[in-house]
Write a structure and sequence with these properties.
Strand order of the largest sheet: 3-2-1-4-5-6-7
Oligomer: single chain
Number of helices: 8
Distance between the termini: 39 Å
Helix content: 40-55%
Number of strands: 7
Strand content: 15-25%
Order of helices and strands: EHEHEHEHEHEHHHE
């Protein structure tokens, strides 16, 4: 028996990078994955099927999301799958500019994608759980929410004020919602990735000086892989993490301990 047989896992930003790796990791454990992204997800679907899982493609642009759109999106997934067992809030964007020149448009877009929409999705899935989903679930089943935070949930970063603010916000929401919902059998935790080789960090990896400085500071001596984050998400969504609530787990090759 695989750990997520017959369970439904929702992953945002599932078309590539960390979101794709999370989707494949859950699929390998038997989950039916509902992937939400605005770009093509054919590769993710293929990879999930290759490891024995199922993949449901949900096309949505989270950068324009409102509260009602988030509720409608969750309702659509439940209509097609019957339930949700795990929500992995992964979708995120980054905009780089000196703080004095940072535009209002970039600020608003980053905050919507990275903080506002994740909150509305958590709100929607918790509302479903609290108003009937829990009663229809097997005894002692839990709803699991796993957010993707960042090292910049703890640090300030350079020329990424909106991203830093949004990721501090994700860490705070993870704790605040755990305080409210733990008694309802809802686990709300987060993974804080270190420097991971994805599209968001391409500019840093292509800068010889920044790339060397970053790798020299990581005790592991390498950039992380999306799969490093996926394993932590699967753990936090598993029965092994029943007593973890409001935690922000650093997966950073030792960066924060340096």
């Amino acid at each position: 028996m695989k750990r997520f047989d017959s369970k439904v896992v929702v992953v945002t930003g599932s078309s590539r990078g960390i979101g794709q790796a999370i989707s494949v990791a859950f699929a390998a454990e038997g989950a039916r994955v509902a992937g939400i992204a605005r770009s093509d997800q054919a590769e993710t679907a293929r990879l999930c099927q290759e490891v024995g899982g199922q993949f449901l493609t949900i096309t949505s642009d989270l950068s324009t999301g409102t509260q009602q759109e988030a509720f409608d999106l969750i309702a659509k997934i439940i209509e097609q799958t019957g339930r949700i067992d795990v929500l992995a809030n992964n979708a995120g964007i980054i905009r780089r500019a000196p703080a004095a020149d940072f535009s209002e448009a970039d600020w608003n877009e980053v905050m919507r994608v990275n903080l506002t929409t994740p909150f509305f999705l958590m709100q929607a899935v918790a509302k479903w759980w609290l108003t009937g989903g829990r009663e229809k679930s097997p005894a002692q089943t839990r709803l699991r929410i796993v957010n993707i935070a960042s090292l910049l949930s703890f640090q300030g970063g350079i020329t990424v004020p909106a991203y830093t603010a949004s990721k501090h916000g994700i860490a705070g929401l993870t704790k605040a919602l755990a305080n409210e919902w733990a008694k309802e059998r809802i686990n709300v935790n987060a993974v804080a990735p270190g420097y991971i080789a994805t599209e968001n960090t391409k500019a840093l990896r292509e800068d010889p000086l920044r790339n060397k400085a970053i790798q020299d500071r990581i005790p592991e001596g390498r950039w992380g892989r999306p799969e490093d984050i996926a394993g932590a998400c699967v753990f936090l969504a598993s029965d092994n993490a029943d007593y973890l609530n409001g935690a922000v787990l650093n997966v950073d090759g030792g960066w924060m301990g340096r």
